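Request: Give me one sample?
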Amino acid sequence: MVLKDDNSEKSIELFISIGLDEKTARNTINNNKVTANLTAVIHEAAVTDGCDRNTGNLLYSVATKFPTNALVHRPTLLKYIVNSKIKTPAQLEAAFAFFASTGPEDFKLNEFEEACGVGIEVSPEDIEKAVKGIFEENKKTILEQRYRTNVGELFGHVRKSLPWADPKIVKKLIDEKMYELLGEKTAADNEKPTKKKEKKEKPAKVEEKKAVVETTAEPSEEELNPYTIFPQPEQNFMVHTEVFFSDGSILRCSNTKEVLDKHLKVTGGKVYTRFPPEPNGYLHIGHAKAMFVDFGLAKERGGCCYLRYDDTNPEAEKEEYINHIEEIVKWMGWEPFKITYTSDYFQELYDLAVELIRRGHAYVDHQTADEIKEYREKKMNSPWRDRPIEESLKLFDEMRRGIIEEGKATLRMKQDMQSDNFNMYDLIAYRIKFAPHPKAGDKWCIYPSYDYAHCTVDSLENITHSLCTLEFETRRASYYWLLHSLSLYMPYVWEYSRLNVTNTVMSKRKLNYIVTNKYVDGWDDPRLLTLSGLRRRGVTSTAINAFVRGIGITRSDGSMIHVSRLEHHIREELNKTAPRTMVVLNPLKVVITNLESDKLIELDAKRWPDAQNDDPSAFYKVPFSRVVYIDQSDFRMKDSKDYYGLAPGKSVLLRYAFPIKCTNVVFADDNETVREIHAEYDPEKKSKPKGVLHWVAESSPGEEPIKVEVRLFEKLFNSENPAELNDAWLTDINPNSKMVISGAYAVSTLKDAAVGDRFQFERLGYYAVDKDSEPGKLVFNRTVTLRDSYGKGGK
């Protein structure tokens, strides 16, 4: 429910007066709780006539983050903010931590001021000294990596020693020191484009590709290190969330000091995260973002990340998927601290379910699935909701022993059927399934639900940060309700936007459908954005991780990232790592008439564009003989001013070889199809043609070059968002998404290429050797073309 219009406009005016922009102000009034809190904060701070934007932003944070167990102290904090004694987000976060720990108890002002850095002025000289010290410590690395140095790490070192330093001054001095040490950027430094500041994407809109624009805006701390948004484990005593019940009561979930101390003793204060995939399908690029968040946070903080298989559905899990997930996680560069399964905890989960019943928070229900759905829609309690605890305990034991038929009973959590949050409608904790479990065997015939097991195992594994995508945000109330009901340790929960990319589908159901029904060639089809498909296509894990890091860990949901952005990162990586070679896709024979038929000239071709002449490994040998092949697209009968290919009477340069001039054209019987070209070469290289062509020659007279198969891939779906087509999404599949060229010619050095090897086919794109290759028959997948459209406008 939104406030009435007259009150809404007054609230908007009030919020704008403290520096909020109109859009933020209007979004705020859609949340009654935040509106009420912010209005109260503004009045408590006595700034109803307005204030500067920095103060207003701090007040907004107080309204949304102040620990509810210390509301009595909020006026004190507001006084410090208005008087500019607390003026940075870092100081404010320290204040929140202080008050969350203090609660409603009295405190000493000097201890509060010390905890928040009040009165501490960090001079530019102090910052300059700290920056100088960090550069001295890391000088060798900086000189090696030059402008590819991770500036975020340098920034973090300075902030660690000077937590109250102005981040803008820190960044400015780091930039100046980099320039002082390295000088102007070289061409090599500039290979990687300057990071652009992106416009905030509108919900459900495809990310717009803007022209490259230089910006002088200072990057935020989150841009330098995306993990700074997450609190430290010792701060996990603050109120995690508030659960509003239909009777007006509020559950404010937080860890007690005793519970948190016990947790910290077990973990040693380290960060513990988990990556919890279901083993019922192959991982896709969205999972790459989840891995970056889960494993990345643990790595950045020197902590641990579990790989935990959420194997609560015995009918869906397969060993194939388990093996695939473990392999892909390692390929992506992540090392699990420990591999666990939810099924490892089946006994503990059962015991806790019994305890939940004993505490009056769960009951055995006999409603059918349709009845449960109907009662939820009507917000009605189940007829069995208030049955005696002993009766539910007995029935739950019978469920466990297999006495009750499948579908005749479930264990449901006694939450709040009248709540505004449908994820509090007495969610199912256990259901009966007479199916053996891939790991637990036939020991169990009841299995826990995701809503029951997920949060409970998080607690049992002492997870500090439970991170998931935004569609799970409404489940947060149920997550904390259950842990609170069982008096268990509560992890810090945070949701981020899921990764959506254009021209594909990432729904597990849809992926499974097109794989099962052979619209594609398996889970690792190179047209899919499954991680195995991307790997088979030739994409590196480094490129995928760079793509994910570039997107950031945001909460702006509903946006779709254009696939060209991913391709940009792929090109950046392969440009540095893929050696150059030459392949002709559609060969056209060229006879060099002024070269003897038995003559073979061995030439040097560059593997790398910046190859040094004194480095033999940077070159490979190519033969130049009387018969060479160019691509059919590089010849036409009629020349034009803007055409740089070969034409009758025209010269071109064969890359790494000689200029050639077309002297004659031989047609097929239809007098239209060009069968071969006759040309003369310029051994002295006196002519300087503008056009440069790639080519492949016979390695010896009469012996054709190596023949290879090349597969060209385009976008799998024609529409940027096929999901918008609802049930008609299959009609959007691009029938031309895969083209196979079976008669391409390659230089002889490629004959020893192995599966997974990546190359740049000059003038064509990046390609990788496919697993379908056999001795004597190489198959290449096109990874990506050479042209980069990301950030250049248009498609």
Observations:
- Residues 192-205, 207-222 have pLDDT under 50 and may be disordered.
- Residues 593 and 680 are 6 Å apart (CA to CA).
